């Protein structure tokens, strides 16, 4: 059985198991988007084991792939990491509240949120850019004008998050 998320200590049973039965190279990354990296490895028996580490997810911001980034641009300094999803998205009386993503997935702070009104609201209200006030993991609130809205985060390089939304204008 795969062990739960935990820390690998030198000499622990987890580290002994991994020395004997691991296949392929382990891989690191922030799997759960909490700002610290996890280390994942597979065993010959077919289990995938994952450990928490204290490593900061934003520590590798220089050249994190063979060709620099997710788009294989090979260009130093380009921002190809979009904001993460708007988590815990809730709506109450035209106030939208959610857990803010960051500039790069769940790290940092996005530049702004794009609010687009849909349905009949789309004709009455123009799309607007709302400046971000919360860093990743903190609560961000946005007052909206209509009952049908689509919202996504935009970072300072123009990368977009996935879209969240609610309602159909006049029905929500
Ligand atoms: Ca993590
Ligand atoms: Ca970014
Ligand atoms: Ca950026």
List the helices and strands and how they pair.
Elements: H1 13-21, E1 22-29, E2 36-43, E3 48-56, E4 87-92, E5 95-99, E6 112-117, H2 119-124, E7 128-131, E8 139-143, E9 149-154, E10 164-166
Antiparallel strand pairs: 1-2, 2-3, 4-5, 5-8, 6-7, 6-9, 9-10
Bound molecules: calcium ion (CA) (3 copies).
Bound molecules: calcium ion
Give the beta-strand count. 10
Instruction: Summarize the amount of helix as a percent range.
Output: under 10%
| Number of domain units | 2
Residue windows where pLDDT falls under 50 for at least 5 positions: 1-7
Strand order of the largest sheet: 7-6-9-10
**What is the structural class?**
mainly beta
Radius of gyration: 20 Å
**Largest sheet data:** 4 strands, antiparallel
Global shape: elongated
| CATH fold-level assignment of the largest domain | Immunoglobulin-like
Beta fraction of the residues? 25-35%
Q: How many helix segments?
A: 2
CATH architecture verdict of the largest domain:
Sandwich
Taken in chain order, the helices and strands follow as HEEEEEEHEEEE
Q: How far do the termini sit from each other?
A: 46 Å
CATH class of the largest domain, named Mainly Beta
